Task: inverse folding
């Protein structure tokens, strides 16, 4: 039996699979980071909402409490911006993962077609070999019958 032709793009397929796995891990890590950033932003927003300015306190205490509240509000704004940026980054990495998966799938389809073509060629070769054997036997039987003086049959 003849040696089967290998899929010449197999090394490329292995590289694409590795790239897809790396993109998947990066997307998963980014999704976790985005959820964590969102959780921190919500915690800071909840803490800000519970702040109560001092009712009757000296001016410097009241002023300090207001400055602290303003700083906490700025922190909440920054945390929400960070959460939004993390979510966008996670979306980009998810898109890269999708693109890597599509590239891998395209090569896998080519590999499947290649294997199917090999199987089809093998089956055709086997059919031709069987046909050749039958034809050779039939030709040999006809020759023997003619040599024995028997009429040739269809």
Result:
């Amino acid at each position: 039996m003849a040696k089967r032709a290998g899929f010449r793009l197999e090394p490329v397929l292995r590289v694409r699979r590795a790239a897809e796995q790396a993109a998947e891990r990066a997307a998963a890590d980014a999704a976790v980071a985005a959820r964590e950033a969102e959780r921190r932003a919500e915690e800071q927003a909840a803490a800000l909402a519970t702040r109560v300015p001092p009712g009757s306190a000296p001016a410097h205490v009241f002023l300090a409490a207001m400055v602290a509240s303003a700083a906490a509000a700025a922190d909440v704004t920054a945390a929400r911006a960070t959460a939004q940026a993390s979510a966008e980054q996670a979306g980009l990495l998810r898109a890269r993962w999708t693109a890597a998966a599509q590239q891998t799938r395209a090569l896998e389809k080519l590999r499947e077609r290649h294997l199917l073509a090999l199987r089809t060629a093998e089956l055709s070769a086997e059919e031709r070999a069987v046909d050749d054997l039958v034809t050779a036997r039939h030709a040999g039987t006809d020759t023997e019958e003619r040599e024995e003086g028997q009429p040739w049959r269809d």
Q: What stands out?
A: The chain has a mean pLDDT of 88.
